[in-house]
Amino acid sequence: MVDQLKPGKSIKDTYVFDLKMSERGMRINRLAEWLNGAENRDAFKSDMDAVMDQFELTGEEKKLILDNDWLNLVKAGGNIYNVVRIAAIFDVGLYPLGAQQLGMSYEEFLETRNEKGAT
Amino acid sequence: MAMIVAGIGTSHVPSIGAVVDSGRQNTPEWKPLFDAYEPVRTWLSDERKVDAVIVIYNDHACDFSFSKYPTFAVGAASEYAIADEGFGVRPLPPVKGDLELSTHICRHLVYEEEFDITICKEMAVEHGLLVPMDLCFPQQGEWPVKVIPVQVNVLQHPIPTALRCFKLGAALRRAVESYDRDVNVAVMGTGGMSHQLHGERFGHLNSDFDNWFLDKIEADPQAICDMTHFDLMEQAGAEAVELIMWLTMRGAMTPDAQRIHRNYYAPMTTGMGLITMQDAA
C-alpha cells in the first residue's frame, strides 16, 4: 500500500487533519458544526459556557476558545474550517485568524500579500 | 444522447462569493479575476449550450459533519438548498437539480462502475459548489443550468487518491454517454489552487506549482495522478489537496481534449486558477 501521508515524514508547521486529529478534536468540531444556523449562533453568543458544556468540551478546550487561541485550537484537533466558524462568533475573519497563527499583526500580514486589497 | 460538452477546472475561494454579493467585481483588486470568466460564460452558454453541470466539490464541514463524512456523495434531488456555513445564508435561489440525470448517474456508478457512492436526496450546497456557479453560470433570479452535485471528502484523511478521482471522471463520462436524453453536460472540478489556512504555514502560496499544475492538467494528467497527498500538500499547502477534484473533470474529457481558456491570479492567500477544455473535434 502506498501510504498517501508518508508515515514518519511531516510537513513543517502543518497538522494534517486525519482520523487521529478528528478524534482529538471531536468536541470542538461538533460544536463548530452546530454553529451553522443563526439560532444556534445566538445561543452560543448569549451563553458560551452552557453550550461548551453541552458539547462536553474539556477545560483546556474551553479556554482555547475563550482566549481566541486559533493556532492551538487547530493543534487540539479543530478542523480549520470549523475554527473559522468559531472565530466568526468573535468577529474575527479568516485573514486576522491567519495572521495570529503566524504571530503577526493583521497589517503586517497584509504587507506580505500580492494584492492586499482583495479581502 | 447526452454528451460532455465542456470541462472546467476552477478555484472555489469563498471570498469570491462575498464579492459577488456586494457587487465588487469591478474593483481593481477583483477585476483581473472576474474578467477572465466573461468569455468563459459566453462560451458555455452560446457555444457549448450547456444544459446541466456536474460539479465536483467538497463540503467544508457544513451540510456534512465529520461524524459522518462521505467519501463520494452524489445528489439525487430536484432542488438543493443554500447552506448556512456559519455566517448566514447567501441571497441566492435554490440550485436546480436534474433528478432524472442524477438518478441515471447514481445507477450507472453503482451498477456499472463499482463506485458505491452515498446518494443524497437532500443536500444543502455551500461555497465549494456555489462560487464556481457564480463564476461560470451566474444566477439572475434563477440559475441558468441544472446541477448534479458530486461531493468529495478532501478534508478528513484518508481521502480518495488522485488516481481514484481521475477514474471517477472517466466513470461519469460513461454515465453521461449512456443516458438517452439529449442533454449537454459540463463537468466542473473545483478547489485550490495552492493555499494553506491552518498552522504557522498560513498563507503558503506556490505559483510555480500552480502553473505546473495548469500545464499538466491539460497535457499530462498522469503526472498529477502519480502524486501522493503528502507531495501535493508539501508543494501547494495542506488545503490545496482539494486540487485532486480537478482530475475528475480531466478524467471525464478525452485524452487529447483541447484547452480553451486559462487564467491564474493570486492576490491574497490562494492561487485562483481556471482552465476550460473541450474534446477535440
SSE blueprint and pairings:
The complex is a heterodimer of chains A (119) and B (281).
Chain A: H1 19-24, H2 26-34, H3 38-46, H4 48-54, H5 59-66, H6 70-75, H7 80-89, H8 94-102, H9 106-111
Helix pairs in contact in A: 2-7, 3-4
Chain B: E1 3-10, H1 14-21, H2 31-47, E2 52-57, E3 72-75, E4 79-82, E5 95-96, H3 99-112, E6 118-120, E7 124-125, H4 127-136, E8 146-152, H5 162-177, E9 184-190, H6 207-219, H7 221-225, H8 229-236, H9 244-252, E10 258-265, E11 272-278
Spell out the helices and strands of chain A N to C.
HHHHHHHHH
Q: How would you state the average pLDDT of chain A, rounded?
A: 97
CATH topology of chain B: Protocatechuate 4,5-dioxygenase, Chain B
Biggest interface, and residues per chain?
A-B, 52 and 42 residues
Q: What count of helical segments of chain B does DSSP give?
A: 9
Report the uncertain regions of chain A. Answer: none
Describe the overall structure.
The complex is a heterodimer of chains A (119) and B (281). By secondary structure, chain A is mainly α. Chain A has a domain at 19-91: Orthogonal Bundle (Protocatechuate 4,5-dioxygenase, Chain A), CATH 1.10.700. Chain A is 59% helix and 0% strand. In chain A, α3 (38-46) crosses α4 (48-54). The mean pLDDT of chain A is 97. Chain B is α/β, with parallel strands linked by helices and 281 residues long. Chain B has a single domain (3-278), classed as LigB-like (Protocatechuate 4,5-dioxygenase, Chain B, 3-Layer(aba) Sandwich). Chain B is 36% helix and 21% strand. Chain B has nine helices and eleven strands. An eight-stranded mixed β-sheet of chain B has the order 6-3-8-2-9-1-11-10, with helices on both faces. Chain B has a three-stranded mixed β-sheet with strand order 5-4-7. The longest helix of chain B is centred in the first third of the chain and has 17 residues, at 31-47.
